[in-house]
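Lab channel / #folding
Pinned by the channel admin:
"Please post every new chain as: sequence first, then the C-alpha cells as a reply. Keep commentary short and put observations after the output so the thread stays searchable."

First post following the new format, from NK:
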Amino acid sequence: MDPNQTLFSVVTLMPQEDPSLDRIQVYNVCIQQPLKLISDGLWAHENLIPSKSSYTMLEMQILVIFFITQSFHFLLKRLGFPYLASQVLAGFLLGPSIPTGPLEAYKKMLFPFGSPDILNTISSFGYTFYLFLNSVQMDFNLITKTGKKAWVIALLNMFTPIILAGGVFVQSFNPLWTSTLGQKEADDLSVITISQSGCSFAVIACMLNELGVINSELGRLALSTAFINDLTGGMMAGLGTAFVTSVSQGYLMVARNLFLFFVYLTMIPLVGHPVMKWMVRSTPEGRPVRRIYIVAIVFVLFILSHIAKYFNQPFMSGAVILGLTVPPGPPLGSELVDRMELISTWFLSPLFVTCCAMKIDLTICGPPKFVLAVAFIIAITHVIRQAQIVAICQYCKIPARDGFCLALILSCKGIVDICSYILLFDGTQQSPTVVAVMVISVLVLGTTSRVGVKSLYDPSRKYAGYQKRNIMNLKKNSELRVVACVHKPSHMIHIKNFLQVCSPTLDNPLVVDVLHLMELIGRSSPIFIAHRLQQKTQSTPNYSGELIVIFDLFERDHAGSATANTYTAISPVSLLHEDVCNLALDKMASIIILPFHVRWTEKGLIESEDNKIRSLNHKVLERAPCSIGILVNHSSSSQNSVSYKVAMVFLGGPDDREALALAKRFASNLDNKLFVYRFVSHEHDSTNWENMIDNEELREVRGAFGKVENVTYEEKSIDDASQTTELLRDVANSKFDFIIVGRRNGVKSEMTAGLENWTEYTELGVIGDLLASPDMETKASILVVQQQQTKVLTAS
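Reply from TO:
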C-alpha cells in the first residue's frame, strides 16, 4: 500500500502568511472524481489500492483501533484502570504522541491524508448520541428533590475553586506568570480552573454503576450533587461560548447570540416535552413505542444540532437539551436507550475518544516551566475542591472516610471532559500543551478516583450485626417488624397470606414494610418512593398501584393491630439488594421475606425461573442486617383463610431456633394449628451446648409450661439421611398450609449427611430444598428461615 495514494490525488502544504495562526495549516488538494467508496477486492487485476477506497480504509481503521484498545484494556483492567484509559492510550499510540520507529510508515498508510476526517465525522455522531442518551437517563425532576446538602456541596464545589484557584493563584500572581511564561501562556491558566471545577453527571453515574454503589446513601448524594454541578457548568459553558466567540464581532453580535441561546434553551423543553408526553400517552401500557416516534426524535436531534451553529454553540448542545426533555424511564426513555446504546456507547463513542487522543502530540508539549505551571493549577484546583467537600461533610456529620470518598467521586473525570478539552483545542481556544496536560489529568483522576473509592468505601459494612435484630430476641407481645419484597404481581398474594398467618392482634402487633423491586431502565438515577408520603405530595408517578391497594386493604382488615407501608425501589438489578437491606436497617426490621425465584404450575411443573431474583436473594442472605425468610410457593391459588395449619420441622441450630420463634407467633392465634416435628439422631448428646439451647427453646411447645391447645409436638428418631427424607415426605403429604424450616446455614449433622450433594437450591438449605422439590408433591407454602448473621461480611 502506497501512503501517497490517498483519497486526494495531490496534497501540497501551503506556506503560512500570518505567523499568529501558527496552528493552522493550509493544504492545496486535488480530488479525483468520482470518489471511490468501495475497493475492488483482493482479486482485482488493477486499482488494488485500499487507501483510495474511503469505506475500506474506514473498516481497517476501526478494526485496528478496537484491536489496540482491547489489548490495552486486557492488561490495564487488572490494575484498576478504566476502559477510557485504554481508549486514550490507543489514540496516543496511533497518533504522533508515541513514536513507533519503523512502524511509523504503517501508521501513515493506515491514516493517510483525509481519512481521519471521515472517521472523526462518523464517530462524532456516536458522541452526540452518547450525550443525548445520558441526558435522557437524567431525571430533571431530581433538581426539585435534591436536599440542601447536595445544593451546598454542588455550588461551592463549582465556584470556590474558581474564586480561590483562579483568583488567588492565577490572577493575583498574574505578573509573575506573565514574566515567567509569557502573556499568552498566562492567559491560558485562567481557563484551566473553570474547566477543572465542574463534573459530568454521565461520568459520575457510570463510575458509581461500575463500582456498584449507585443506590447507596453516598452514591445518591454524589448523583444529586453531580446533577446540579453539571447543569450549572453547562449553563456557564453555553453563556461563555456565546460571549467569547462573538465578542470580536461587537457587543451587538454578543447580545444576538445570547438571546438566540436563551430562546433555544427554553423553546426545546416548552415544545418538546408536551409532544413527548403525548407520545407516551398514545402508547398502550406494556407495548413498545412506535418506531415513527423514535425516527422523529432522531431527526429533530440532527436538526437541533445543525441549528446550534448559527449562534456559535457546539453541535452537541441540542443533544443535551433535547435529552433532558425526554420523559425518563419506560416507555419512551427506555426505548431510546435500548435502541441506541449499543451503537453509540459501545461502538462509536470509544472511536471518538481515540480520534480525540490522536490529535494530541505529547512530544511537543512546550517548555517544562509551562507544563509544570499547568499541572500545578490543575492540582491546586482539585486540592481545594476535595478539601472543601471533606470540610462540608464534617459539618454535616458525614463520616470523614465517606466525605473523602465523595470528594474522590466528584473529582472523577471521563469521556465528556476529554471531548470538551479537544473541542477547545479544535477551536484554537487552548494551546496544545494545556490540552495535553488536561487529558493526562483525566486519566490520573479517573483512575485514582475509582481505585480510591473501591478500596475505601464499603456500603455493606453498616449491615454488620452489632445489634440483635431477630425474632428470637424480641420481647413477648412486642411488635414484629417485617420487610416483605415483591417483584411480580404473583408475589403479592403469597406475601399477604404470610402476613395473615402472622396473626396480628392488639397483643401481637405487626408492622410490615412492603417493597416493590423494579429494574432501572432508561434512566441513570435510582428511585426510592415511600408511597404513604407520595399520597400527600403527589409529586411522583404511581409505579405500584395494585400493591398499594392490596396492602391498604390488609391494614384496614387488621385495623389497630397491623400497619402496612408500601415502597417502590427502582435500581439496577445488581444493586437492588442494597435497597432491601437499607430499608430493613432503617425500619429496624426483625426479618426480611424474599420470594423464591421459581414459580410452579398447578401440576407441579416449573412455569418460570428468574435468575435475577435468585442472585438478589443470595446477596441479601450474605448482607442482611436481620433474619431472612425465603417464601416458596407451589400453588398460585389464594387461600384467604382465617385459620392455618402450620408445620415446623426442627433439627437444631440457630436457624431452626429462629424459625421456631416465628412459628410460636403463628400459634398465638388459637385458630391456627401448629405441629412441631423434632428430628433427633440416635447419637444425640443432650449435654452439648447447642442441644441445651434447643431444648430450652422447645420447652414451651413441649408443654413444659402447661398444655398448649393448638400446638402438637412430636419427636422423631433418625438413624440416617434416608429416614429424614421419608419423614419429610410424610410431613409434605399431610396437607399443611405452611411448612417452616431453618436454612441450617453452615450446620452439618448425621441426619442430613450426603444430602448436601443433591441440593439444587443452596439458598434453601438441605431440608428446604427437599421440601421444595416437585417430588414431594406438596401444595403447602414453605418458609426457609436464616437467623441474623452477626459477623461482618465483605461485599463481593
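NK: Residues 535-541, 792-796 have pLDDT under 50 and may be disordered.
TO: also worth noting, Residues 161 and 383 are 9 Å apart (CA to CA).
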